[in-house]
Amino acid sequence: MLKSGCRIALLAVLPVVWLTTLVPAGARQEQNVSLRSSTASPLKPCKVQGVDEELLCGKLSVFENRKSRVGRRIDLNVVVLPALEQDQKDAPLFDLQGGPGLAATAGAKGYATDLKEYRRRRDVVLVDQRGTGASNPLRCGENGSDEYLGEMYPVEYVLDCRKQLERVADLTQYTTPIAMDDLDDVRAWLGYDKINLIGLSYGTRAALIFIRQHPEHVRAAVLLGVAPTYSKLPMYHAPNAQRAMLLLLDECAADAACAAAYPRARQELTEVLESLRRHPARVRYTLLTKQREVLIKIRGDVFAEKLRSRMYDPAGARRLPFIIHRAAQGDFGPFLKLTIHEDDPASASSDFSIADGMYLSVTCAEDVPLIDPVEAARVNRGTFFGDYRVREQRRACRNWRRAALPAGYDQPVASDVPVLVFSGYMDPVTPPAWGAEVASHFPNGTNVVIRHHAHMFDGLTNIECLDRVTLDFLQRASVKNLDTSCLNLMLPPPFYIEQPAGRN
User: Residue 76 and residue 393: Cα distance in Å, rounded?
Assistant: First the structure.
């Protein structure tokens, strides 16, 4: 859904700095919001890669087809990081990951280290959603092409992926509504009543669907970069990115150093895209890890899509005027250095560890069928980015199994559950208007716009403020009198300015 060249897990972007001491083994006590007693707990002590402490792990078996309740079963992979203060337990925090296609359990290391304060008074529960991580992952094989910066979803790749995965999965059984019923099974299995939810990007949609289907079990929810059920992604990728790009270039023009270094950034972007769309560039590029030179074709639509993906985080966005300027001079080296991941040519279209089959199963059911191609052409026309993503994903979905959805799935989710929405003013994919609209259906919710935030937080200063606000909200389960003033201190890095030759 929100897949891009810059996709990272929530746990990588919500650092906290407090250090705490884990309660010794055996000191856990039964609480009415805790795991079951140690004798009845379905979890066992375990070690997780990259985590020094002992965690709790288990697998809950569910039917792949929850409706028929026959046939294949899925073992949902569950990791729990116990609360640090067992005698003052709060409702647990369930972390919902983005993509769709990222594994929640990959965030265990974050909650065991930088994010430890989130566990002060609550268990943190990580569940690999069906189709991700170790829950029957729907991972495709190699792209099959050694072409860097090729198509996002080549037809043969999609067909091969479907053929491969249909041996081990019914691809119509991996939608968000089904997965959120799984999650409620995990909640009950672990003995919790009410839970807290936190989600980034696609994880916000998952949280919204859980609230719709199981509101009685939700204490509070935090949504970062909200993707509504009706957003028809990627139909609005181009206009949303156009807004963010123009804001970025305006900021460059208002910044003395950036304006002096790149006085024609907007015109240069237009010129480069027009040139590449007429005549794709062919550039020789040296792969440092392989010590060999390759010839790379750079098409205008792919160039634009890669620029769009770099706007997901402030650190990447603030390099774009430099990259655009150099490309306008015919030097695509900085662009390729930022874009090419040398380990795998397929990574040019999938930068992080997203299960492509899961991604397609969700988007081909929940988003792409809602796209009117005439409307898509209209809203994408005249943007820097065009309709590339829409065309790629509509074509891919024509070759994928489409799942059925509950009636009214795309209607707004409304509830009395307390909800805190964070929106980035510079977000190129889930704009603040979406956050405001979603929050309007929650009488106990609010949308907080962070001025210099995009979709991810990489590069912002004073990031601990976000944790402080989030933890305050989770403790009180209320947006009333929430002090968000420190969010104004979250500032972006300076624009990247190329130094003259010979100067460090």
Answer: 28
H helix runs in 129-193, sequence order: 155-165, 176-189
Cβ contact 101:109 at 8 Å: no
* Joined tokens for residue 422: 């964070």
How many Cα atoms occupy the beta-carbon half-sphere of 349 within 13 Å? Answer: 26
Q: Which two tokens stand for residue 109?
A: 């290391």
Helix (H, G, I), strand (E, B) or coil at 104: helix
The pLDDT, as a whole number, for residue 288 is 76
Tell me if 317 sits within 8 A of 325, measured CB to CB.
Answer: no
Answer whether 442's CB lies under 8 Å from 472's CB.
no
Residues in the chain with pLDDT values less than 50: 4-32, 38, 344-352, 502-504
Is-contact 410 229, C-beta < 8 A?
Answer: yes
16-20 contact pairs (CB < 8 A, 24+): 16/114, 16/115, 16/116, 16/117, 16/118, 16/464, 16/467, 17/114, 17/464, 18/116, 18/117, 18/120, 19/116, 20/84, 20/116, 20/117, 20/119, 20/120
Packing angle, helices 155-165 and 356-366, rounded to 10: 100
> What's the pLDDT tens digit per position in 150-172?
899 999 999 999 999 999 999 99
For residues 125 and 133, what is the distance between their CA atoms, to the nearest angstrom? 15
DSSP state string for 249-313: HHHHHHSHHHHHH-TTHHHHHHHHHHHHHHS-EEEEEEETTTTEEEEEEE-HHHHHHHHHHHTTS
Q: Which two tokens stand for residue 299?
A: 């098409």
Q: Is residue 358 within 8 Å of 137, Cβ to Cβ?
A: yes
Tokens at 339, concatenated? 């874009």
**3-state SS class at 106:** helix
- Which two three-digit tokens encode residue 245? 């790009």
Q: What is the pLDDT of residues 407-463, one digit of tens each?
A: 999 999 999 999 999 999 999 999 999 999 999 999 999 999 999 999 999 999 999
Q: What is the largest CA-CA distance in the chain?
A: 69
SS3 377: helix
CA atoms within 13 A on the CB side of 328: 16
Contact predicate 60/78, CB 8 Å: yes
Question: Cβ(125)–Cβ(92) under 8 Å?
Answer: yes
Q: Tens digit of pLDDT for each residue in 263-284?
A: 999 999 999 999 999 999 999 9
pTM as predicted: 0.91
Q: Which residues of 65-95 are buried (b: 16+ CB within 10 A; e: fewer)?
A: ebeeeeeeebebbbbbbbbbebeebbbbbbb
Q: Quick one: residue 477, left, alpha or beta (phi over 0 = left, psi -120 to 50 = alpha)?
A: left
**E strand or H helix at 326:** helix 320-328
Helix, strand, or coil (residue 392)? helix
